[in-house]
Write a structure and sequence with these properties.
heterodimer; A: mainly beta; Immunoglobulin-like; four-stranded mixed β-sheet; four-stranded antiparallel β-sheet; 2 helices; about 5% helix; B: Immunoglobulin-like; three-stranded antiparallel β-sheet; 8 strands; about 25% helix
């Protein structure tokens, strides 16, 4: 059994940031926790962005840098409620990944599943082993 | 001034004094203290809750990304709320391997004591985009009562 501490006892949580009407300007940006899983024909990136739906996430690829940007949907404060205990902060998400040349960048798939952004980066098929025939003169 | 001193003497708490010393010591290493308390928090209590209140009761939110509603169990009895569940790895083939592993998987359970007894028939839980929202209603008999002062 754990007890919930009142907001006043937790200076590090900074409840004013949540209560303030001008939240967007004050909202922190967090690095989403990420798992990267490698399979034979693709690499999967799973990034946790709780609270965000597919419309609040933007993914851009510039040269070989993949950028994930998540904007926490406003309002943060449920209508008519006052914050009593704040154990976790909410905010925006941002993270970049440098890709190698072996991915088919046009075929990247992205989906939001229960607050987790799931990206599939398929490997380029034209990089597979090639046989070179030796000709005789 | 004298009153203050007497007051302090009567309520003097040796452990409080030690806490005070501890605070001062930590003050010298502010980074250390912040790190330690963060580690302790994250290891002890999962999931973490934000608790909101209005006149009719409480609204508790919790971040549970990747958890499916069928893997979540919420029990509210009296003034205790328990959130239990498990988080499973997303689809993964046998030959697949982790290149980076930051997420945690497995079972979790946390019980918290609420500030009052809630109405167990009026508990609502929603899981949306990885955020759990539990609405708990405060019964009439648990609401604060205004006491009218009369002149005699």
């Amino acid at each position: 059994m754990t007890t919930l501490e009142k907001v006043e006892k937790q200076p590090e949580q900074n409840p004013t940031a949540v209560e303030n009407s001008n939240v967007e300007a004050q909202m922190n940006t967090y690095l989403p926790r990420t798992d990267i899983v490698e399979s034979e024909d693709a690499v999967n990136i799973w990034a946790e962005m709780p609270g965000l739906d597919s419309e609040s996430v933007s993914i851009t690829l510039e040269k070989n840098v993949l950028t994930l940007d998540g904007k926490f949907p406003l309002p943060v404060k449920p209508d008519g409620y006052t914050l009593r205990v704040g154990e976790f902060p909410v905010g925006n998400y941002h993270r970049t990944f440098r890709l190698s040349q072996e991915f088919d960048c046009g075929e990247i798939e992205a989906k939001m599943k229960d607050g987790v952004l799931c990206l599939i980066l398929p490997r380029r098929k034209d990089l597979g082993p090639k046989k070179v025939t030796v000709m005789s003169e | 001034m004298l009153l203050n001193q007497i007051g302090n003497w009567e309520t003097w708490d040796p452990f409080g004094e030690m806490n005070h010393l501890q605070r001062n010591r930590n003050h010298l290493f502010p980074g250390f203290q912040a790190d330690r308390s963060q580690v302790e928090r994250s290891q002890k209590d999962f999931p973490q809750f934000n608790v909101w209140e209005d006149n009719d009761g409480l609204l508790m939110t919790s971040e549970l990304p990747g958890v499916k509603p069928e893997d979540l169990d919420i029990v509210a009895t009296g003034d205790v709320l328990t959130v239990k569940g498990s988080k499973k790895v997303l689809e993964m083939g046998e030959k697949d391997s982790f290149l980076k592993r930051e997420l945690t998987y497995g079972n979790f359970s946390r019980s918290v004591k609420l500030p009052y007894r809630i109405n167990p028939d009026k508990v609502e839980a929603k899981l949306r985009n990885g955020i759990l929202t539990v609405t708990l209603s405060r019964p009439e008999e648990e609401k604060p009562k205004n006491i009218t002062i009369t002149n005699n």
